[in-house]
Amino acid sequence: MSPPLDLVAAGRIYCDLVFAGLDAPPAPGREVYAGSLTIAGGGGAFITAAYAAALGLAAGLAGILPAPPFDAAVRGEAAALGIRSHCAPAPAGSDPQITAAIVTGGDRAFVTRRPGAALAEPLALPPARHLHVGELATLLDHPRLLALARAAGMTVSLDCSWDGAAFARPGVAEAIAAVDLFLPNEGEAARLLALGIALEPRVATVVKRGPAGARALPRGAPAVEVAAAPAAAVDPTGAGDAFNAGLIAAWLDGAPVAAALALGVACGAVAVARPGGATALPCLAHLRPPAARTALP
User: Fold this and answer.
1) Do 56 and 285 contact (CB within 8 A), yes or no?
2) The predicted structure's pLDDT at residue 1
3) N or C: which end of the chain has fewer CB within 10 A?
4) What DSSP character marks residue 27?
5) Dihedral sign, Cα of residue 275, residue 280, residue 286, residue 287
């Protein structure tokens, strides 16, 4: 039996087709050409697991693979990155779960086919210290995931991932309140607050602010902010998920809030300087500071 994981990331798994270096912005009725195309494993859960593994954590992935032929690319990349797969195959006849990411002007747009459930039933999780849920919709669709994690003694983090339909569903505030760390970006946090949804997880909300850095809002403690790390921007795809991995790794190490944010933004800087989400990541263990014992409250 394999030893327990430090982190298992659960959520939708995509094959990303990342088009970068466009000669002009896409427009109706006009063909544009990309300078590069990267085919890579994608989705918040995959990218967070990849960066966690690169940081030296024992990282696993739970979800449903894209349908063939895209499943082979995702399986191969996960193995190369050192991610332990706990993934199910796509149901027969499924459309492939893929995302076309179009990088232009320092930002990106996505077109995604999301054909079915995020996780296979009956739900199961490998032994781990921590569960990271890659998108709010996954937790809303599979609420028993949280009970399974708590019964196994796991702490839990939740990314948001912009989803207007999910924001309007019942139970969003309750789902956020039940996790330890909630990790939206600035736009997602603003939208949830505008809808009257409280951002009050058990330990802290951490807001990712892109070039402005990140802000932690711990329960019962003052806010903490850090600036973004310098980076030569190539492709922002997956930067928020890379941030998640750094923050969680430092938190599991027992690092103080500022150090956890700093490792998050350092991983985000690595991500924006690379094409695609997590392709051919180098070892990033040198980014982890020595463990400190003053953790997030």
Assistant:
1) yes
2) 54
3) N
4) B
5) positive
Please tell me the distance from the alpha carbon of residue 263 to that of residue 282, in angstroms, as a whole number.
Answer: 16
SS3 label, residue 239: helix
Question: What angle do the packed helices 44-54 and 257-272 form, to 10 degrees?
Answer: 110
Reported as half-sphere exposure (CB side, CA atoms, 13 A), residue 98 has a value of: 16
Choose among 10, 69, 75: nearest CA to 41.
75
d(C-alpha 190, C-alpha 193), whole Å: 5
216 in Cβ contact with 243 (< 8 Å): no
Q: Phi/psi at 259 (nearest 5 deg)?
A: -70, -35
User: Which pTM was predicted?
Assistant: 0.92
Distance CA 190, CA 158 (A): 16
pLDDT number for residue 294 = 43
Structural domains in the chain plus CATH codes: 5-12+44-94+117-282 (3.40.1190.20)
Asked if 176 and 195 touch (Cβ cutoff 8 Å), the reply is: no
Coil, strand, or helix at residue 187? helix
89-129 pLDDT, tens digit each: 999 999 999 999 888 876 778 899 989 899 999 999 999 99
| Angle, helix 44-54 to helix 70-81, in steps of 10 degrees | 30
Please list the ranges in the chain whose pLDDT falls under 70: 1-2, 106, 290-297
d(CA 210, CA 77): 26
Q: How far apart are CA 36 and CA 293, in angstroms?
A: 44
| CA within 13 Å, CB half, 246 | 32
Helix boundaries (H) for 236-275:
239-253, 257-272
Distance CA 39, CA 277 (A): 10
Strand partners, 131: 8, 156
Among residues 44, 36, 34, 99, the alpha carbon closest in space to that of 66 is found at 99
